[in-house]
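Dear U.,

For the methods section draft, I wanted the exact inputs and outputs in one place so we can describe them consistently. I've listed the two proteins in the order they'll appear in the manuscript figures. Please don't edit the token lines directly; just add comments below if something needs changing.

First protein:
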Amino acid sequence: MGENKAKLMRGDVDMLSYSKQLLSDIGIKDILVSGNNYQVPDVIANAGPVAGIYSVLQHYRPAAILALPVDLPLMTAAALSQLKIKGELSQKACFFQGHNIPLYLPNNGYVELFMSQTFAKNKSAVPGKNPAGQKNGPSFKALLNQVPHISVVPDKTSHLFNTNTPEQWQQAQARFK
């Protein structure tokens, strides 16, 4: 994208604030943002979003996590609520069909086992450092291959429009104006 997606403006509000408001609108009270410049610093640097979830789990012990990236400007509270409810009822990882994130992730033995096996080699590392110059961590696909999960058919696939390029951001802006 060339700039911090969290600071992109969706109307009068930046994407981070918009995303946090969506979570608040569906009743989530404890909203944490992972990353070195936010509430939960990375335990392992440059290891991706699954490592961000790992960092949250190292600092807190939530019953579940609803991971929402800041690059979904068309996401709605109704769509997130659908995901959250399905995840709570099934007590399984829950995501929209064809998209691994947003992700409802219960904090259970399956998740703990995956995280400990995946990040165990890094436990002796200095917090915030990624040993051996590694740049990437595990994918959501790798996580979901190890935990019970269900995929939900979204009411509208447009809610999942992801903005990773300036062109995609312009397309999204045209849709919410």
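Second protein (the one for the lower panel):
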Amino acid sequence: MSTTQNSGRWPHEAPPAGQDRWSWRPQLLSELPLIRRELRRSLVADTSDAAAEQEEELHERLVLLMDELLSNALRHGRAPVAGLVRRTASSWLLVVSDAAATVPPHPDPDRDPARGGLGLRMVADLTTAYGWCSDGGRKHVWAVLAPA
């Protein structure tokens, strides 16, 4: 991971390319449990029986990270919010967008864990790459999750 990523600032760069798989447009935090269930079902349906056990932990991390990014967008971004799961050649790409195009993700690396608000740090710790960009009046926060 680059020093930029470890400094508490998210890199300002476009996400890698990927094939769109699933998407959502939540308006309320109360919609997140349904999105988590739908994503879990979709991931299981997309996995072969032989790979299901190996992929279970990866899928749970993917669901956790999508939930965290959507939650952040709904709490700190500006509507409309959208979440997208893409597949790359070797990993999963999560992209969450909102209309707060000029407001970057702002993790606080010195924050006391007892005060909460550690979601972006968790996303950074559990992924192989992450960043954000803006275009067309939208901010796109993204993270890449690769198999272990």
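Candidate sentences for the figure legend, describing the second protein: The chain has one domain: 3-145. The helical segments are 3-6, 32-45, 52-76, 119-126.

Thanks,
Y.
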